[in-house]
Each structure stands twice: as C-alpha cells, then as structure tokens.
TrEMBL record:
This is Homoserine kinase. The keyword Kinase applies. InterPro entries: Aminoglycoside_PTrfase, Kinase-like_dom_sf, Pseudomonas-type_ThrB. It holds the Pfam family APH. Keywords: Kinase, Transferase. The lineage of its organism: Bacteria, Bacillati, Bacillota, Bacilli, Bacillales. One of its GO terms (molecular function) is amino acid kinase activity.
C-alpha cells in the first residue's frame, strides 16, 4: 500500500470525523495534515522512511510509543506549546496498518522557516531548549521507555558507511580520512562524559528551524521524531549547524541563563557537532539525490570544521561554516 492508503486505514482507528487529508512531507516518516469536522487539525505520521540508511529502531512500536509518552509528560508539566499525542480507539499511541506503524498528534500552528531570521528567534529557541532540558533533568521515564542514544556505535557506523563510499568512488579518500580522524577524536571525548541529571537525559535531538514553529518570534518545538538519550548539549550542537559561528556564544549565554552549562561546554559541543554531522551524512547516503551534493558537503566539512578539529584547533566561534 502507498502512504496515502495506509493513512486512510489508520484514520478509521481514531474517534474523529475526517474532512480532509493532505500530504505535507516525507523523510523519516510520511506526514499528513488532517482536518476534522470541528475544524481541529492533526498530524498523522506514517512511519515509513524514504531514507534507506535510517536505523530500523526508529520505527519500532515501543520506541514510537516512548516518544509520545515524553510528549504527554511535557504537555502536562510545562507551559510550552507542543504537539499533543492522540490515542486510538484501543487506547494506544501507535496504530498498526499491516506491518506499518502510524501515530497521531495535534497540529501546532505557526510559521516554519528554513533558517533563523532574527535575533529574537534565536533567543526564544535557546530559552525553549533550556526549558526542555530543565524538564528532562527532573523527569523519570517509565521502565518501558525506550529511545535511541547518541553513542559511539552510531557514530562509528556512520564512519564505516562513509568509508564504503570511498571504495565505491562516490567520496574522496582524503576527505573521509579527515572525517575519520575528527570522528575518532570526538568519540574519545564523548566516552569520558559523566552521566548525571544536569548533563544527560532525554532530548529533542533535532532542534533546527524546520522543526520549530514561530508565533510572534516565540519558538514552539515540533517533530520529536529524533528524540532520545544523550548529553543535553546535543541539542545545542545540532542547532549550531544552522547558526553562524559569530552568533553562537550569544545563543549559549541565553541558554545558560535558564539551564546550567558544564565547565567544558565548548569541547563537548564541538565533539557533538562533529558526531551529529557524521550521523547526518550517514542518513544522507540513504537518499538517492544525495549523490548530487554529498561529495561537496563532505569536502567542505573536511576542509573546515572537521579539518580544524582533527588538527586540535577550535572551530565553534570562528571560521567559515560548512554550508557557506
């Protein structure tokens, strides 16, 4: 079945009178915007990825259920504007159509952007991120809670797949050698990080402009599909892939007013930045069109952030970012 037919089958298992079903996007899941007869809007996700290198764990029912358990807790315990998970007629957050899992959330109104466009948007995103981390530092997940972790195994897997592309002559060998040197250094640092309530827990995992809706400059997070366990600074590192180096210290200062920073936050963010860009490259390998842009992306990264990091130089606040 194609995604639209799966969505129609899934909708019969919810207590809503559907008026319209509109496809919105697809990456890790196919997303449909649903309107009911009362004018209420929902987001129905059909968890079939178009990224063939995405780890299978992301679409498991227990993993999907855990995402929505956290979202439910955030809605109860914080004043953030968030998607609200909806249970089906059986009382479950996960609806199965054949062997495909689907989930439903309320729709969060606001403006999605491809990039940050103002200082106010950055400030609000930093404060929103700190609020998520404050909640996670206090919240005790249930024993059934299962979400992926930012760890050495996932980073190493990304490096292995990138090295395979050298053998298949998609990527330049020298570029990937630099990526590997930087990745090894980042993994070594992450292996040493302490795990405690103020540094490590459940995090969003993908706080970037397309996953935020803005209302009058206020940032509201959506798309918790990449949430999992890891150092809280992971969320800053992924956001920094969209923020110019000369604006990052201000962002850190805004965040630090609401949630404590470890003493070595620069070293940690740099290691996490390297790690997350590698995982992003891994996911890109699963998209057919990536052959057109990934070699250039890898080359720029190798000659900029990764090259400096491998050579023992800081890059967080200086230099040319990989996207320029």
């Amino acid at each position: 079945m194609d995604n639209a037919i799966i969505a129609q089958h899934a909708l019969t298992q919810y207590d809503i009178n559907v008026v319209s079903v509109s496809p919105v996007a697809q990456s890790g899941a196919a997303v449909f915007k649903i309107e009911d007869n009362c004018g209420l809007l929902y987001s129905l996700r059909v968890h079939k990825s178009k990224i063939n290198t995405l780890e299978k764990m992301w679409t498991r029912p227990d993993v999907l259920d855990s995402e929505l358990v956290w979202l439910d807790a955030l809605n109860r315990d914080t004043s953030l504007t968030l998607p609200v998970p909806k249970r089906n007629q059986q009382g479950s957050y996960v609806t199965q159509v054949d062997d495909i899992n689907c989930t439903m959330l309320s729709w969060v109104e606001g403006e999605q952007k491809q990039y940050f466009t103002s200082e106010q948007e950055l400030k609000s995103t930093a404060e929103m991120t700190a609020a998520l981390h404050h909640h996670a530092s206090k919240w005790q997940p249930p024993s059934s809670f299962i979400r992926p972790t930012v760890n050495r195994a996932r980073i190493q897997n990304a490096l292995d797949l990138l090295k395979q592309q050298v053998r298949e002559e998609l990527l330049d060998a020298h570029d990937v050698q630099i990526l590997e040197a930087a990745g090894e250094k980042a993994m070594a640092l992450l292996d040493t990080l302490p795990i405690n309530k103020l540094t490590w827990g459940v995090l969003h995992g993908d706080i970037v402009p397309p996953n935020i809706v803005f209302v009058d400059g206020v940032a509201n997070p959506i798309d918790f599909g990449a949430c999992g366990f890891g150092p809280f600074l992971t969320d800053l590192a992924i956001t920094f892939t969209f923020i110019h180096p000369n604006a990052r210290q201000q962002y850190i200062d805004w965040y630090g007013k609401h949630f404590p920073l470890p003493n070595d936050y620069v070293a940690q963010i740099e290691a996490l930045f390297i790690s997350l860009v590698l995982i992003g490259m891994r996911n890109a390998l699963g998209m057919p069109e990536s052959n057109n842009w990934l070699p250039t992306h890898v080359h720029k990264s190798a000659s900029r952030e990764f090259g400096r990091y491998a050579n023992g130089e800081d890059f967080l606040f200086t230099g040319t970012p990989f996207w320029e």
